[in-house]
Amino acid sequence: MGDIERLGIFGGTFNPIHVGHLIAAENVRDRLGLDMVLFIPANIPPHKSVDVAPSKDRLEMVRLATKDNPLFGISDIELRRDEKSYTIDTLWEIKSQTDAELFFIIGSEAFMQIHTWRAPEQIFTMTNFIVMERPGRIVGAGDFEDYLRELETRLPFVIYRGCEKLDEISIFTLESEKMESKIYLTPVIHIDISSTMIRKYIREGKSIKYLVPKEVESYIKEKGLYR
Fold it and tell me: Among residues 172, 187, 198, 211, which one has the least CA distance to residue 136?
């Protein structure tokens, strides 16, 4: 990752990865001028307990889904750990491998729970955030600003410094331990597909053609996943 200056980090269970993930990642990469988006499948996600396919299968499906885009990368950094995956551990490991500026890609609902994460103050010293807004579930910039002001009281080392607008993107600045973290609240192209829906379709014997890349569809069939 030597030549990369702006690295997007896109974590998730990817159970399975689908076209909605790919469209959102490419849309965000293009809007924010990222040199690469790194897909990181989670090992045992602390906030989820669903019928999760084996790690090696989820990793392979992400590889198949992203292999045709040279600006998409993939990492097994979380799958190599035996314990639960925590964002702070992943960021430390990525920081040790690259000098790139980091941009953590996340949905607005998930971001507004960040005070419950492990070591949130440290997270803000290590990465910027790209917070994706979905149509129909939009967190307005005002609500978002209220949450960031609330973070000041919850996290002793975080100071909210204000907001500026760039086209449709609201850019918020947080200061933390002499570091500055930018939070980009941005609308993204959203396709109303979920991994839960795809798993349900598979169990019911319905077609998932065009919901996932065709190589992923073939892999799911070949391995008998989610039946």
Answer: 187
In sequence order, which residues have a C-beta less than 8 Å from that of residue 85 and are 6 or more positions away? 11, 42, 43, 44, 45, 46, 78
If you ran DSSP here, which 8-state letter would residue 189 be given? Answer: -
CB atoms < 10 A from the CB of 193, how many? 17
Homologous superfamily of 6-193: HUPs (3.40.50.620)
Query: What token pair was written down for 2?
Result: 């030597």
Please state the domain extents for the chain. 6-193
CA 227 to CA 32: how far, in whole Å?
A: 38
For helices 19-32 and 55-66, angle between their N-to-C axes, nearest 10 degrees: 60
Q: What is the pLDDT of residues 122-144, one digit of tens each?
A: 999 999 999 998 766 556 778 88
d(CA 195, CA 189): 17
Tens of pLDDT, residue by residue over 80-116, are 987 777 899 999 999 999 999 999 999 988 999 999 9
